[in-house]
Amino acid sequence: MPYSRHNIRTSSRSAIADVTHAPFWLDRPMRPDPTPTHVGAATADLVVVGGGYTGLWTALLAKEADPGLDVVVLESDRIAEGASGRNGGFVASSVTHGFANGLSRWPEDLTELTRQGHANLDAIEETISRYEMDVDFARTGELEVATEAHQVEELEQLPDLAAPYGERLEFLDAQATRAMVNSPMYEGGVLDRRGVAIVDPAKLAWELARVVRGLGVRIHEHTPVTGLEATPTGVDVRTEHGHITAGRVALGTSAFPNLLRRVRPFIIPVYDYALMTEPLSQAQRESIGWQFGGGVGDSNNQFHYARPTVDGRLLWGGFDAIYHYGSQMGPELNRDDRTNAILADNFFTTFPQLEGLRFTHAWGGAIDTCSRFSAFWGTAMDGRVAYSVGYTGLGVGATRYGAQVMLDLLAGRETERTRLEMVRTKPMPFPPEPIRSPAVALT
């Protein structure tokens, strides 16, 4: 039975009847207490706006490069409250949003982009180990699966296509794919054994915050930044209850309206949704296999992603990617009961042997989406402000890379990263409404 958004089974609706409408990763007692709001006047060498992965990696890399640097992180809400605490926890080596996207846009640089991406993932793993970060990191790999015959043919060609660029992929037929993850929907797959890890996304943000605070970084939560103003020697970063005079500013604000108005036409907020199951029984775990422990994504245009957790649950997300007219954002959009029901129904289509399993959490949130589907960068105010945005849902690993690029740009240095066409160019901007909505639908 193909995936559908119609004729949702009653049993699927029952499975989500009692969910908690909050991200599973954030709804746990180990969440750290908030840090103090910034009040009054202060100075800093570097102010980082945004307490998600981009901002926290920027702070960490800056302090590692120069331990004497005075760094401040400003977060409008709580650490990990945005995309960093709502995602599936797939840490991919790709910085181009997958091999196919990189090949279509930067074929001449793709070998180098692949090398840098794998080095970035290795560095993430090394950093987590060196600082003894409790984030449930596992270098599991990822399985991309086909659910239709034409997708099998495409996946079968992928290992040979990707090999010259440095990717090592393995094609699996239907039997081998189902031996890894048992679903009647899976007709074949491609296994990437080393290019993807999984992690507890909220723990990663919380542990990054712990580490940078230990290195002397000041973090202020509940501190929205209201504006930036150039000064003769730097940038004045204005907040609701004060300001900070900074030598340099790094912006990692994800899908939220960028403080630089020139950047806003390049980014739209697209809402993605996910469910988390209750822990599976031993019999349920045996019925689906999933011995390799990694994540799974299907090859559909409206794709699903799934992964196990350390406590025996399954995360299931994707399919719908919803843009609201006028680039609307708001907490009320983090819940979509219709999409949740569709997700639940498609879950049981994929794993009919799990019929009767219930979901404990349902949530959604905005993804910073751009027209080329991968991060882009730029500077303002005579190079004193830099930004990294546009990850389009594949930023758990790529944000560290994005942070490095921002620091390169702020230092005004040419590096192996800044020489790349991907870094030197920008995506096409989205047109204003009323043209934007159909353009987004087409994209």
Report the sheet with the most strands, covering strand number, pairing sense and barrel closure.
9 strands, mixed
In total, how many beta strands?
A: 19
The residue ranges in which pLDDT falls below 50 over 5 or more consecutive positions are none
Average of pLDDT: 96
Give the distance, in angstroms, between the N- and C-terminal Cα atoms. 27 Å
Q: In angstroms, what is the radius of gyration?
A: 21 Å
β-sheet strand percentage:
15-25%
Query: What is the number of helical segments per DSSP (H or I, 4+ residues)?
Result: 12
Give an overview of the whole structure.
Helix content is 30%, strand content 24%. It is built from 12 helices and 19 strands. Helix 2 (53-65) packs parallel to helix 7 (201-214) and helix 2 (53-65) packs across helix 10.
Task: Itemize the secondary structure elements and their pairings.
Layout lengths: L9 H6 L24 E10 L3 H13 L5 E4 L15 E3 L6 H7 L4 H21 L11 E5 L2 H14 L7 E4 H7 L7 E5 L3 E3 L2 H14 L3 E3 L4 E6 L4 E5 L2 E10 L16 E10 L4 H7 L6 E4 L5 E5 L5 E5 L3 E2 L13 H14 L8 E11 L6 E5 L4 E5 L5 H17 L9 H4 L11 H7 L1
Parallel strand pairs: 1-2, 1-11, 2-8, 4-13, 11-19
Antiparallel strand pairs: 3-7, 4-6, 5-6, 9-10, 10-11, 12-15, 12-16, 12-17, 13-14, 14-15, 18-19
